[in-house]
Amino acid sequence: MKLLVFAHTPPPHHGQSYMVQLMLEGFGGDARRPRLTPEANRFGIECYHVNARFSRGLSDIGEFQGTKMLLVLWFCAQALWLRFRYGVKNLYYVPAPGKRVALYRDWLVMLICRPFFQRVILHWHAAGLAKWLETETTIGSRAATYRLFKPVDLSLVLSRYNFADAQKLLSRQIAVVNNGIPDPCPDFVEVVQARRRERFRQRKKVFAGEPVEVPLTIKVLFLAHCTREKGLFAAIEAMLRANQLLAARSLPMRLQLTIAGNFVTEAERAEFDELRQQPGVADCVKHLGFVSGERKAGLYREADIFCFPTCYLGENQPVNLIEAMAFGLPIVTTRWRSLPEMLPENYPGLVPDQNPDAIAETLLKVLALKSGETVRSHFTAHFTVEQHLTVLARALHSVE
Predict the structure, then answer these.
(1) Contact call for residues 170 and 130 (beta carbons, < 8 A)
(2) Is 119 helix (H, G, I), strand (E, B) or coil?
(3) Model's pTM, two decimal places?
(4) pLDDT tens digits, 166-210
(5) Chain-centre distance of CA 71, in angstroms?
(6) How far apart are CA 365 and CA 348, in angstroms?
(7) How many other C-beta atoms can be found within 10 angstroms of the C-beta atom of residue 339?
(8) CA 355, CA 292: separation in Å to the nearest integer?
(9) Residue 114 and residue 81: Cα distance in Å, rounded?
(10) Are 304 and 367 contacting, i.e. CB atoms less than 8 angstroms apart?
(11) Which of 13, 60, 56 is nearest to 290 (CA)?
(12) pLDDT of the residue at 59
């Protein structure tokens, strides 16, 4: 099977671009270049990649820039050249979330490229386009989207929540394909599991009112783009309120928040800097900026709980939650879009929104109830890269 992959890889680095990179690597990379490994083509898919990178950084994703319209034409020209040079008949495309400029870009790509491909495959990495079309756009924009997109041959969705987006465009087939990543913590059983159990034992002693030699410091990790929508400010406020609850109960435990990620806007960076000047905040909030590689792995290993109270418009199946599960971290996140489906059934770490009081109470509840081993098992059962590539390849082959 030959597949024209019209999607970008990092940079900028975010969940969608990373998953496209993993797909390309798993299927052997761009077929015009030497195979990455002798077994790279075991899935029977040849990818021809148009690296459709429209944004240079996080701040201009989804923003209007005149050069982006020229880039659309350039990327479409590349796609059409590959279509006829290599006989690629299947177009793989990642549609936009509910952002007007990005939607216009999708219109142009579909208008130019779609007539020349026999089959169109959409991979819904972002969620919420269907609802956005019904509530936030004009009738004309809605009609144009339906006319240019539907029906598509296959929609790949990450969860049951995503079905609404695929059904809106009358997809002929819909397949659920979980995201999956290489195990970032292969030594979990040998190294990390013992720490998780010991820290859980210490927390249970504190919550049970048993004496401890020294007060317990709990490391809370927020690893994401530093925006209000992603839950940055809600996490800070919740951590402060959780400490107030612990102090009121005279429990020898305090939470410290480590923030890893870049700011997207200068306004939010300034708001964060001002917040850190408040009494008690600077002592328990640390910002590291963007982290990767072993430094990021170290943060996951040393953390006690992962806090991600996101309400981001396009949130779907974020990689940071999958990574947190892989490291066996107890998780607190929002009951938002596809996120509840990612976690084990009846998981207690879900909050309805970004209310700091609810998040604070849930942080303490999860710390008292969970060691993190359950979510590690959930990762190995559902979110490995091998499972992802196997199910993805099967779905792609189904259109031919």
Answers:
(1) no
(2) strand
(3) 0.90
(4) 887 778 999 999 999 999 999 999 999 999 999 999 999 999 999
(5) 25
(6) 8
(7) 22
(8) 30
(9) 14
(10) yes
(11) 13
(12) 46
Cβ atoms of 151 and 173 closer than 8 Å: no
Question: Are the C-beta atoms of residues 12 and 57 closer than 8 Å to each other?
Answer: yes
What gap in Å lies between CA 72 and CA 82, rounded to an integer? 15
Per the listing, tokens 């290599």 go with 86
How far apart are alpha carbons 243 and 47 in whole angstroms?
51
* End-to-end Cα distance, the chain: 8
Structure tokens at 30: 């761009």
Residue 55 · residue 12 · CB < 8 Å: yes
Tokens of 183: 């195990």
Burial class of 89 by CB neighbour count within 10 A (0 to 12, 13 to 18, 19+) = middle
What is the Cα–Cα distance from 116 to 132, expressed in whole angstroms? 29
Domains of the chain, CATH where assigned:
2-181+384-397 (3.40.50.11930), 188-382 (3.40.50.2000)
Least confident of 49-63, 160-174, 320-334, 335-349: 49-63
Would you call 134 exposed, middle or buried from its count of C-beta atoms within 10 A (0-12, 13-18, 19+)? exposed
* Cα gap 126→95, rounded to integer Å: 8
Q: Which residue has the tokens 């048993």?
A: 210
